[in-house]
Amino acid sequence: MVIAESDDPGAPVSIIGVGESPSDGLRKGVVVNLEKTITSIQAAAVAAERMAGQRIESVIVSLAGGHLFSQNSTGVVAVARPDHEIGEEDVQRVVEASRAVSVASDRQVIHVIPRSYTVDGQDGVRDAVGMTGHRLEVETNIITGAQTAVQNVIKCVHGAGFDIEDVVCSGLAAGEGVLTPQEIDLGVCLVEIGAGTTAVVVYNDGSARHLAVLPVGGNHVTSDIAIGLRTTLDEAESLKLNYGHTLPDVIDHGEKVEVRQVGGDRIQALPRRFLAEIIGPRMREIFQMAREEVRKSGFDGLLPAGVVVAGGGARLMGTTDAAQAVFEAGVRLGQPLGLAGLADRAQGPSFAVAAGLVKWGSRAPARGYASARQPMTMALTYQKTVRWLRDFF
Question: What's the whole-number mean pLDDT along residues 23-41?
């Protein structure tokens, strides 16, 4: 959780609180244990609120999982005003018209992202408000998700005692956090490697063109290490972060790491190259799957700004080198941009999504999330009361 404040929508957001907690209760970005997820949210919230010295009532939530799906759509309307000047209401109507796509009954629309407008046949219009025309068209990218997965996330956040302002796909939030406007205009691929999933977002001409969520992430690398070296998951995670590398060839043959074997206290010294030989193939697989999504989008070889790698899984040494070998393009590590205040506490690729959420909230009006507007249940009332009492005792 990251808490920030902003006086001016155009100014950098100022970080005032940061809290971290292991994402227990989630598997591949989807809630599998409500109680553990609620506890994790509350732990991160307590840490962030103590640092900020403020109590938070509502939040913007990131959403991940392989159930997220991106599709393109178009909408067409006639300009309503007698003088044929396009107003904000016309833009809203045409975007709403583009939502009329076939969506399965068990799915719901998460985002409708306008890509470009066409006014009386003139395409490539970024902002149609104020222009004159009879016919207004829009191309949009629509992102949908499974209703049950979305509602379970909402239920967990409510259970932790928070209202929800908005729900944002983690890939789009990461793009908001680490990409520059120039990269989004030129064309860039963002690969956000989370714990259980990897989000791939292709940007071009100022907007997201394609989004996919791969069912692999940093936890799979940790699991591979635990199996390959016969150690515990906690030990594997520590080895991955402290000694892991994606390229075995750069590791000296004589370098050793101490590994605590599972089921006992026996410590064995193993070549560090073994670790890299386990990590390398999994990371290459993730980037190969990501490049396949870029090919599906039709932008392979057409992204001058290259690739940006973010997320907690990008902290591995050699990650950008592995990505560069697969994508055959320029690769950089995604660090949160445009932050002030305690920005040093929210640095590193693992804060890409959280930094993007606060930036998203600072520029978007607080509109409330439609699916989250449910009657206040006894559980939510209880959680809010507990949080209120904690302020005084």
Answer: 93
